[in-house]
Specification:
mainly alpha
Length: 225
């Protein structure tokens, strides 16, 4: 079998799904360890570092999945010729997204730069999620970039993961506030209860993301419609 560019992209696309779910599973398990009463400050610090490190895999894989998907689709499934400038724009946005993720993770560039990235990051996700949703809906209606319903469905599924990610940020805010108090002034049953509730609520969008990622993989492999 001859391995060409498309096969390499497909393999990378599949790896992104693997690391996306794998990283989320690690974060999911590690987060529960932070709720243990009596855990030392050092132990909580190390667990949080592990969570933060593992969380970078799904954060990087999310934009890569859509950029690789559009690239492969432009090679195989788009009905009309896909404007190379649009594909270039998609990759520019994906690379910028990954840069934001890594800059926040490494905390590089000083507090002002990090603050600016935080301010831009969330609106960017809203714009991207809404844009892909519109593209997917238009494609299902027959006026989009593809006539293949399964491909349009994958676009909508991916957009759903973006919105779930945005929701999880909101539901985790009480956790961050309570965790900060635990690390500075000491553990209290009230703060642990707040952290527990925030994590349990956040599991709803996270589990939804897992289901959507699994569904996207199934649709891409089986192309049922």
């Amino acid at each position: 079998m001859e391995v060409g560019l498309y096969e390499i992209l497909l393999y990378t696309h599949a790896l992104c799904f693997v690391y996306w779910l794998g990283g989320d599973l690690g974060v999911f398990y590690a987060s529960s360890q932070l709720l243990k009463p009596g855990l030392s400050t050092d132990a909580r610090t190390w667990v949080r570092k592990i969570m933060h490190w593992l969380d970078q895999f799904p954060r990087v894989c999310m934009p890569l999945v859509i950029a690789l998907g559009f690239t492969m689709s432009s090679m195989r499934w788009f009905e009309s010729e896909f404007d190379p400038m649009i594909l270039t724009l998609i990759w520019v946005v994906a690379i910028a997204w990954i840069y934001f993720v890594l800059a926040l993770f490494l905390n590089k560039g000083g507090p002002e730069k990090v603050a600016l990235i935080r301010k831009v990051d969330l609106p960017m996700r809203w714009v991207i999620g809404i844009t892909i949703t519109v593209i997917g809906v238009m494609s299902l209606m027959g006026s989009g970039i593809t006539q293949d319903n399964w491909l349009a469905a994958k676009q909508l599924i991916w957009a759903g993961t973006v919105f779930c990610g945005i929701i999880s940020r909101t539901t985790m805010k009480p956790f961050g506030v309570a965790y900060g108090r635990v690390m500075t002034t000491g553990e209290t049953p009230e703060d642990l209860a707040i952290m527990k509730r925030a994590l349990y609520i956040t599991r709803i969008p996270i589990l939804t993301i897992w289901g959507l990622v699994a569904l996207a993989g199934a649709v891409g492999i089986w192309k049922p419609f």
